[in-house]
């Protein structure tokens, strides 16, 4: 598998919130509390992150709260601008082009046709005032589908898969519980069989039976459609179940990187060790 | 105080030039809303000032002008606009669609096909077809630039989910020249197809919102519709004008004072009168023969 | 003979216009434009401000023609303005050189130059003065003569005084950031339609010509909780400022080659608003910014409300509508809002017929579904 070319490749991604001050711009005088500069309030959300995602694999990202996992995902999905770095997609049309330098229109095209995203907070992924089926259709419409019955069929199937009763499909997610909203989001992200799927804490907040179903579903779509995924979770159990390879983040940096089994069996960084031992 | 004389066609020449420049740009980019510095006119903002500014910037002494509102030449606001243009230009006025070189209209496109020698000016209250979906101009401008129209399609999809069909009424959005989604102004869906490959130049003016846009002659104009839910015009099948007998025209629904029954009548009044006169002529000639 | 369309519309309009004229004339009283000009000072000011045309005489004429309707009078002036060629931009007006009639600060008791109450309703008791019902020219004559006598002494030892801006005092102390003078020509909103993000000059123009009630309401809403600007009125000044235009002779650069074309009366407000800024070490600091309000004539409420909205729009990273420039700037213009609201009176027969068709079809579809 590793001999293939990665489908998505991140090189030296940095993401800062704030302009920085004299002290924190210079690495030698930098005196951060975790990822935070106490004198100017700047946050180094992602620091020099490089990673590769290979076709058909699930890459896990673990790390404590605030370590920069969601920030990384938002950069990959073009929701926020990056401070610096390069992003490559293995795709005829965009081959060799740093996606972060593309026009807004092209970025949107990639989002609509190549990507799926499930946000940690469903408010970002759903239009709360549109029907659930409409939310799924939005993604399909954006990818060029103009057939209502077809979209309805796809949507119904996906809603069924994520256990949303079909008689509620014309309801707005606004009226749904947090877990239900999350499931509608998953259905939406999957709707156009994107080659790359980003999942940010998808199972957080779901009860165990639904969680198991969702994890099953993710496994299944990986198998059936060969979709490549980046799965973020602070829950190592979820990562263990899903991810072939895993990176561990701390304070915006990647501190460990390898096969999931290897990391679980033989964690090297002290933080990873704590994380793994707490799981046992 | 000395009395000021108003200029030919009300606006000063500088303003007219600016409006014509915006118009040229609109013609060059079919369906794209060109911003312009809309002037305050002597009629209310929202009462056709966009159309009026187009008309006044285009009208020359040779022109023959027709103004209609709701299909009628005699509708109060049409009369008021006509009066204003006439008093500042002295151009010839007409009610006969085929005689007009310049037609300003609100909410209708005339029934008889317009020709390449005519310009149709439509009054527009809300030029932004994406406004129901996105309230910010800053963002809708970006969406147009990126040709990102999933929002408006989603609105139609939602209608189908909720009501089993699209429930748009007038102002059903169209795609112009396969590029820009455009508000055709609040014409009934019945008139949308008349825009497609129209021989006449169609100009649309929104005074309050300060936008001019255009459908140049022979341009593709497609009403937005899904593959499996086709675009549908208002349905008058089985009804005919109680005066002239016309079918396949946009009809007004009226209640007969005497019988209390619903009757139908041509909305395009000059079309109806024209037909009545032709019918009368035929009768006369058959009697003669 | 043939059929002809009925002439209902033309006749109806004609009759309505006659009737309107009758309503204005039926009381058989003539109000002189001069009377409006001399007695309705604040109404005239407000009309000029909302119309953004400084001409007291034309404003008074418009008020007469509009039978006192604000929205109509403003509309008349705006439409008149459209017919006028615009030949010059004035030189930047220096309000420090204002011939001050009234000038107060709510922030400092002792301001350089002192507080001058001038003419204000602020401390009148709002009791109807029934004596005014029988006011005569002789009464007026008597009162003014007497008052002129009284103030003679005061006037004699007064000399023309310079009133420095209150803000300059605080600026010296470093409490206000100092900016280089911006001498760029403003973007003219009457020549180029608004695009977003709007420049500050565009925002200020729209605000100053905004409908008094609308500007006041939004400023009030912001102050009351639907906004995040908490101002202190640093200075309100009312008075005349001279207007100059540059000589059209481009070769001469001499300063005195500008022409004085007259005075306009202005109300100017500088509100002090605490803001968080970053210093050169990128550390957060508290500082003051100015919310700026200005309008034609004496209209202090509007100018103060404008100063609040100016600061709101300087800080748009805020969830409140009063900080949203599209929300504020698109909805405060008198001619636009009254025009669009009133257009609802126009017939909408065709759109309604279309809506009927749509609703009937949905109902029919439902009924068929139920049958099936
Ligand atoms: N818009 C923002 N402005 C300023 N700082 C931000 C912003 N968004 C995120 N941050 C900061 O970036 C850092 C990383 O946040 P991020 O949301 O990526 O963490 P996370 O790893 O996803 O945490 P969690 O597990 O809690 O979801 C945090 O310190 C956060 O405060
Ligand atoms: Mg997160
Ligand atoms: Zn008829």
From TrEMBL, chain B:
The keyword Lyase applies. GO terms for molecular function: 4 iron, 4 sulfur cluster binding; alpha-D-ribose 1-methylphosphonate 5-phosphate C-P-lyase activity. GO terms for biological process: organic phosphonate catabolic process. It is an enzyme of class 4 (lyase). Signal peptide: none annotated. Keywords: Lyase. This is Alpha-D-ribose 1-methylphosphonate 5-phosphate C-P lyase.
UniProtKB/TrEMBL annotation, chain C:
Keywords: Transferase. GO terms for biological process: organic phosphonate metabolic process. It is an enzyme of class 2 (transferase). GO terms for molecular function: alpha-D-ribose 1-methylphosphonate 5-triphosphate synthase activity. The keyword Transferase applies. InterPro entries: PhnI. Its EC number is 2.7.8.37. Pfam families: PhnI. This is Alpha-D-ribose 1-methylphosphonate 5-triphosphate synthase subunit PhnI. It comes from Gracilibacillus halotolerans.
């Amino acid at each position: 598998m590793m001999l293939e070319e990665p489908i998505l490749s991140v090189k030296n991604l940095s993401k800062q919130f704030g302009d920085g001050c004299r002290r924190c711009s210079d690495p030698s005088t930098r005196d951060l509390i975790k990822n935070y500069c106490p004198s100017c309030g700047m946050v180094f959300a992602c620091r020099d992150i490089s990673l590769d995602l290979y076709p058909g694999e699930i890459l896990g990202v673990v790390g404590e709260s605030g370590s920069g996992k969601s920030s990384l995902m938002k950069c990959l999905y073009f929701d926020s601008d990056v401070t610096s770095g390069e992003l490559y997609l293995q795709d005829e049309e965009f081959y060799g082009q740093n996606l972060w330098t593309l026009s807004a229109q092209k970025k949107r095209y990639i989002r609509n046709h190549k990507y799926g995203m499930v946000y940690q907070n469903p408010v970002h992924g759903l239009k709360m005032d549109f029907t659930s089926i409409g939310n799924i259709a939005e993604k399909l419409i954006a990818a060029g589908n103009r057939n209502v019955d077809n979209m309805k069929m796809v949507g119904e199937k996906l809603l069924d898969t994520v256990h949303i009763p079909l008689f509620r499909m014309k309801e707005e997610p606004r009226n749904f519980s947090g877990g239900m909203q999350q499931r509608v989001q998953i259905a939406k992200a999957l709707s156009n069989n994107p080659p790359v799927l980003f999942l940010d804490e998808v199972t957080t907040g779901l009860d165990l039976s639904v969680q198991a179903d969702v994890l099953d579903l993710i496994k299944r779509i990986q198998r059936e459609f060969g979709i490549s995924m980046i799965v973020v979770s602070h829950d190592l159990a979820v990562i263990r179940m899903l991810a072939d390879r895993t990176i561990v983040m701390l304070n915006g940096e990647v501190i460990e990187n390898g096969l999931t089994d290897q990391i679980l069996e033989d964690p090297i960084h002290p933080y990873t060790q704590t994380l793994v031992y707490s799981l046992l | 105080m000395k009395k000021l004389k108003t200029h030919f066609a009300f606006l000063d020449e500088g303003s007219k030039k600016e409006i014509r420049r915006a118009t040229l740009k609109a013609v060059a980019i079919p369906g794209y809303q060109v911003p312009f510095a809309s002037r305050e006119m002597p009629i209310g903002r929202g009462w056709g000032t966009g159309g009026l500014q187009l008309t006044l910037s285009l009208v020359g002494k040779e022109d023959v002008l027709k103004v209609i509102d709701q299909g009628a030449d005699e509708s109060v606001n049409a009369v008021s606009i006509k009066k204003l243009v006439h008093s500042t230009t002295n151009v010839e006025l007409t009610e006969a669609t085929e005689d007009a070189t310049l037609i300003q209209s609100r909410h209708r496109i005339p029934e008889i096909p317009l020709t390449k020698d005519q310009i149709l000016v439509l009054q527009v209250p809300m030029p932004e077809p994406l406004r129901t979906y996105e309230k910010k101009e800053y963002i809708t401008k970006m969406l147009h630039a990126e040709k990102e129209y999933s929002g408006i399609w989603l609105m139609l999809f939602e209608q189908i989910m909720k009501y089993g069909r699209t429930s748009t009424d007038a102002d059903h959005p169209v795609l112009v020249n396969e590029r820009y989604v455009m508000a055709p102004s609040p014409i009934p869906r019945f008139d949308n197809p008349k825009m497609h490959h129209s021989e006449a130049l169609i100009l649309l003016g929104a005074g309050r919102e300060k936008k001019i846009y255009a459908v140049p002659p022979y341009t593709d104009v497609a009403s937005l519709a899904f593959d499996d839910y086709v675009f549908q015009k208002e349905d008058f099948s089985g009804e005919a004008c109680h005066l002239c007998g016309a079918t396949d025209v946009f009809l007004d629904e009226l209640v007969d004072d005497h019988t209390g029954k619903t009757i139908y009548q041509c909305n395009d009044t000059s079309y109806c009168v024209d037909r009545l006169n032709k019918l009368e002529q035929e009768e006369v000639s058959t009697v003669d023969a | 003979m043939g059929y002809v369309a009925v002439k209902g519309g033309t006749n109806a309009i004609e009759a309505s216009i006659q009737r309107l004229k009758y309503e204005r004339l039926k009381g058989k009283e003539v109000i002189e434009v001069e009377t409006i000009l001399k007695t309705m000072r604040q109404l005239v000011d407000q009309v000029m401000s909302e119309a953004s045309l400084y001409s007291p005489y034309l404003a008074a004429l418009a008020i007469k023609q509009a039978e006192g309707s604000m929205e109509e009078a403003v509309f008349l002036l705006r439409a008149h303005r459209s017919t006028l060629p615009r030949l010059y931009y004035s030189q930047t007006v220096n309000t420090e050189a204002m011939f001050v009639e009234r000038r107060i600060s709510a922030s400092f008791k002792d301001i350089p130059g002192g507080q001058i109450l001038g003419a204000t309703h602020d401390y009148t008791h709002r009791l109807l003065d029934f004596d005014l019902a029988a006011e005569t020219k002789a009464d007026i004559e008597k009162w003014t003569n007497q008052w002129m006598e009284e103030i003679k002494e005061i006037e004699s030892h007064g000399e023309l005084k310079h009133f420095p801006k209150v803000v300059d005092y605080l600026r010296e102390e470093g409490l206000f950031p100092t900016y280089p003078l911006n001498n760029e020509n403003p973007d003219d909103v009457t020549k180029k339609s608004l695009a977003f993000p709007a420049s500050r000059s565009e925002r200020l123009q729209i605000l100053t010509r905004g409908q008094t009630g609308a500007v006041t309401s939004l400023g009030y809403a912001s102050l009351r909780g639907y906004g995040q600007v908490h101002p202190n009125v640093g200075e309100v000044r009312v008075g005349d400022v001279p207007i100059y235009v540059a000589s059209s002779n481009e070769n001469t650069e001499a300063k005195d080659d500008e022409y004085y074309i007259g005075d306009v009366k202005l109300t100017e407000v500088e509100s002090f608003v605490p803001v968080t800024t970053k210093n050169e070490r990128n550390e957060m600091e508290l500082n003051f910014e100015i919310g700026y309000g200005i309008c034609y004539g004496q209209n202090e409420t509007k100018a103060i409300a404008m100063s609040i909205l100016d600061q709101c729009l300087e800080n748009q990273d805020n969830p409140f509508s009063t900080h949203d420039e599209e929300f504020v700037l698109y909805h405060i213009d008198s001619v636009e809002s009254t025009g669009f609201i009133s257009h609802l009176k126009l017939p909408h027969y065709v759109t309604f017929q279309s809506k009927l068709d749509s609703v009937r079809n949905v109902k029919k579809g439902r009924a068929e579904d139920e049958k099936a």
